[in-house]
Amino acid sequence: MLDNLYSKREITEYLKEKSIFPNKNRGQNFLCDRNIAYNIAYTVPKSYSRGELALEIGGGLGALSSMLIDIYKENLTIVEYDNALYNHLKEKFNNINIIHKDILTFDISDSDKQYDVYGNIPYNIASPIMEWLLQKSYGKWNYAVFMVQSDFAERLTAKENTENYSALTLFANFMADVKLEYNVSKEVFYPIPKVTSSIISITPKETDIDMIDIFKSVSKTLFHNRRKTIKNNFINSPYININKNCIDEILKKSDIEGNVRGETLNLDKVIKLSNILKEYID
């Protein structure tokens, strides 16, 4: 059994003994710094308090899990997809609920209480996990604290008229408040990744659920071709089916110039555009 979850030497020996090979395709870089694990576990967004239940997405070797168990005890649930890591976690922590499952197919709506959600999120599934959290699990979580690659954190927190501003930025901030807490050195992982990571906190907004799909479609339309104008993207959008003759009227009602790019619109403008567009779709 791996006794010291924060020793690179012991982790290396344990992985070799168990024939566990970090999967690059799954972005498996194991956190092995006690202070970072502690800071993630004890990050609580301002004006929020801890709930009774916690969910960890991907327990890995258990560095963060160990800290979360100190806080939530048996009320922690870990969802781990990797078979070898699942078996490791079951052996390491026998007093909590560990589920062998793809998080994207996991339904947290069975509980009548909200979860505090944590995770060290691989880049290649970061966007689907955000969609799972923000939309599929809407109303079932209290707050989330994730470690993600820094460039993904920058996409979530980008401002209009910047290169990282995107449909993902708009959707994430329509559904939640996303805050960059701090950056993390790549040296705190094994194997050492090529990029730095960031800790983000996510707190849900009260959102009109009837507007979620239309807002997402509008956001994707605005960035359908980043170099094209808003009007051009609406004409050629595969995401929205409207009478093309109404586009000028919709943009005028929204106080939006059709000859500018989608990256110039802030969140409030896109919300207004979505509300007006909905009248033409219904």
Automatic annotation (TrEMBL):
Keywords: Cytoplasm, Methyltransferase, RNA-binding, rRNA processing, S-adenosyl-L-methionine, Transferase
Compartments it resides in: Cytoplasm
CDD domains, per the entry: AdoMet_MTases (cd02440)
GO MF assignments: transferase activity
Residue ranges annotated for the Ribosomal RNA adenine methylase transferase N-terminal domain, each copy included: 36-206
Principal location class: cytoplasm
Positions bound to S-adenosyl-L-methionine: 29, 31, 58, 80, 102, 120
Protein EC: 2.1.1.182
Catalytic activity: adenosine(1518)/adenosine(1519) in 16S rRNA + 4 S-adenosyl-L-methionine = N(6)-dimethyladenosine(1518)/N(6)-dimethyladenosine(1519) in 16S rRNA + 4 S-adenosyl-L-homocysteine + 4 H(+)
Function: Specifically dimethylates two adjacent adenosines (A1518 and A1519) in the loop of a conserved hairpin near the 3'-end of 16S rRNA in the 30S particle. May play a critical role in biogenesis of 30S subunits.
Family: Belongs to the class I-like SAM-binding methyltransferase superfamily. rRNA adenine N(6)-methyltransferase family. RsmA subfamily.
HAMAP family assigned to the protein according to its UniProt record, in alphabetical order: 16SrRNA_methyltr_A
NCBIfam families, alphabetized: ksgA
Full protein name: Ribosomal RNA small subunit methyltransferase A
Species in which this protein is naturally found: Brachyspira murdochii
Gene it is expressed from: rsmA
